[in-house]
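Tokens in:
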């Protein structure tokens, strides 16, 4: 398995050469997307409402999800505040099992 590198600049998938394949990490934008979607659903907010309340367009939020826009920590914090969580909550990779 080849390494995938996020636009955010870190390799996230091991190549298995050291005998480990179990922990496949997601790229940062995928982690942020999964967490934003989960917290928005819990608050019964649309992505459009999350984006507007965060001061960005829906297109910008979707660009973050695609990895086409690298948000700074301040923007991650704004989105987190709207969702009632911390920036760390949006950046934390949850166990996929």
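Residues out:
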């Amino acid at each position: 398995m080849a390494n995938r590198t996020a636009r955010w600049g870190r390799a996230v998938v091991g190549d298995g050469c050291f005998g480990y394949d179990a922990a496949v990490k997601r790229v940062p934008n995928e982690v942020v997307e999964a967490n934003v979607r989960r917290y928005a659903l819990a608050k019964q907010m649309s992505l459009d409402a999350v984006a507007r309340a965060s001061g960005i367009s829906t297109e910008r939020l979707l660009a973050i999800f695609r990895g086409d826009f690298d948000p700074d920590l301040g923007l991650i914090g704004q989105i987190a505040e709207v969702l009632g969580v911390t920036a760390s909550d949006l950046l934390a990779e949850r166990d996929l099992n």
